[in-house]
Amino acid sequence: MDGRQLTAPLLVGADGAGSMVRKAMGIDQQVWTYGQQGIVCVVQTAIANTGLAWQRFMPGGPLAFLPLQDGKSSIVWSRPDAEAKELLALDDAAFMARLQAAMTKVGTVDSLFGELQSIGPRASFPLSMTLSNSYASQNSVLVGDAAHVVHPLAGQGVNLGLQDAAALVETLLANRKQGKELNDERSLQAYSRYRRSETELMARGIHGIHGLFSMQPLSPLRRLGLGLVARSWYGKDKLIRRAAGLNVNAPAIARGVELGQLMR
């Protein structure tokens, strides 16, 4: 901001979905929009959230509660554009009533977290899936949302970004061990191909799940498919391991290898 110019052998674009680094690199993206908004805010509930990530799938989009250190929860409530606009325009009391109804399972008196006590300021963001055509160019690489954005229904955005960072660290350490420059083009392109293939697989999987939950006439088929996965130890284990970054193709750091071991 003060007019100084900095130089470095490698620039890492980790500046979010609207990445200026990506734009400067001239990298195009594939974009799919869902016609939904993610409403976000912090809520206080009668029963403190002591570390539970919880999600309910509903027509129009899921509602997710993510734990915070102080016992509060951060919510992401996916709603169609028109409904999201309506919800954001409500006063706090009316919004809390709508959110309480969404939290509470039909046929029960209380939700998992009890009654809502208070909510913080509300905001929203458009939901989309974006995939950059490449993650490396011109001595620069992309990680996280600068490279890809997925629908929040599976909570995989942060996991994918952390796996990008782990894979980039391993690439740079390998370059150092082999006497290569940090910005070695072949290594950065290998990182790009590896991470793009992995994130595209996950992103398209989430895209497909979103489609199943959005198409109400397919609900019996949807229940059958999810039921088969739930009853299949092998299928469920594969899904969990990939979502947690523990699949065989995951970066070593994600699979538990300590950074010190990689640096030796």
Description:
The chain has 264 residues and is an alpha+beta fold. It is built from 8 helices and 10 strands. The chain has helices at residues 20-25, 81-89, 92-103, 157-177, 185-214, 219-231, 233-243, 259-263, and strands spanning 11-13, 29-45, 54-56, 63-67, 73-80, 116-119, 123-132, 136-137, 140-142, 148-149. The strands form 2 sheets. Strands 2, 3, 4, 5, 6, 7 and 10 form a 7-stranded antiparallel beta sheet that branches. The chain has a 3-stranded mixed beta sheet with strand order 1-9-8. The two termini are 39 Å apart. The model is unreliable at 232-237 (pLDDT under 50).
Nearest-angstrom radius of gyration? 21 Å
What distance separates the N and C termini? 39 Å
Helix content: 40-55%
Label the overall shape: elongated
**What's the total number of strands?**
10
Output the helix-strand order.
EHEEEEHHEEEEEHHHHH
Largest sheet: 7 strands, antiparallel
Strand content: 15-25%
Our count of helices gives 8
Uncertain segments of ≥5 residues (pLDDT<50)? Answer: 232-237
Classification by helices and strands? alpha+beta
What's the overall average pLDDT, rounded? 83
